[in-house]
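Re-run requested by the PI after the first attempt was lost when the workstation crashed. Everything re-entered from the original request form. Ligand of interest: acetoacetyl-coenzyme A.
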Amino acid sequence: MAAVEYREEDGVLWVKFNRPEALNAINKDFVKGLREVVDYARNNKTVRVIVLTGEGKAFCAGADIKMFSESSHFVARSTIEELGKVLEEMEDLEVPVIAAINGFALGGGCEIAMACDIIIASERASFGQPEINLGIIPGAGGTQRLARIVGWKKAMELCLTGERISAEEAYRLGLVNKVVEHDKLMDEAKKMAEVIKSKSPYAVMLVKQAVNRGFKMGLRDGIMYERDLFALSFSSPDAEEGIKAFVEKRKADFRRE
Ligand code: CAA
C-alpha cells in the first residue's frame, strides 16, 4: 500500500497519509508520495483545491524515528531535506491546500500542516515540535514557520520544551483556522473546498501568491507586490465577469479552464 494515497474528485485532490501502524510517520516513500501529489496538482489544471488528512489516530507523527535509527545518516538527513523542499513547492502551488488534522500533528507532521494554506483541526488533534526530545531540531521549516505563525517567543517555548498542545490551544495561538467535532472534520474540509472552488481560480491563485510570498517580504515590498498582483487581477476576464455579475445581480460564472 502506498504511504500517500490520492484521488481527484470534482476538482478536489483528496490526499491521505496511509501508514497508520506507524502513525503516518515520514519515510522515503512518504516524501516520494507527497512529491507525486504536488506534481499531480501542478500538471492537472482540473485540480482546484487539495485536502490532506491522515488515516487512523494521527495526521502525521513526524519523521520515521525507526528510519533515523536504521538508515544511514545520509539517507535520514536527505529524506528530511527533501521533505522541506516538497513543502516549499506545495506552498508555491497555484491551488490552496487545506490540512484536515485528524489527530497527532507532531514534528514533520506539524511542519506539513504549517505549509498548508488553511488548517482545520478535529477536537482530537494535537500539535507540537517534539524533536528536542530526540536531541535534534525541526528540519523541514518548523522553527521558521512556527515563529512566523504563533510568534517568536511561543515558537521558542514549543521548540525548546517539545510540549504538545491541544487543538483548542493551537486555535488560540492562531496556528489553526478552526476546530470542529471529530466526525465532522472531512465535511468541514469539503465545505471549505467548495467555497474556494466557487471563486475565480485566477483570483485564488493571486491571493495565495500575495499572502504567501508577501509574508516572506518586508511590509513595503509586500505592498508593492500586492499592487502588481492587484493590477493583474483587475485586468482579468474573471474580474470583468465578477464585477458585471454583481451589477446585474446574478451569480458570477468564473472561467474554469
Ligand atoms: N516514527 C516511527 N514510528 C512511530 C512514530 C514516529 N515518529 N510515532 C509513532 N510511531 C509508532 C510507534 O513506535 C508505535 O509502533 P509499534 O506499535 O510498532 O511500537 C506506533 O507508531 C504507535 O505509537 P505509540 O504506541 O507510541 O502511540 P501512543 O498513542 O502511545 O503515542 C505519540 C503517540 C505521542 C505520537 C508517540 O508515538 C510519539 O511520541 N511519537 C513520536 C513523535 C515524534 O517525536 N515526532 C518527531 C519526529 S522527528 C521529526 O519529525 C523531524 C522533522 O523535523 C521532520
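Saved to the shared folder this time. The radius of gyration is 19 Å.
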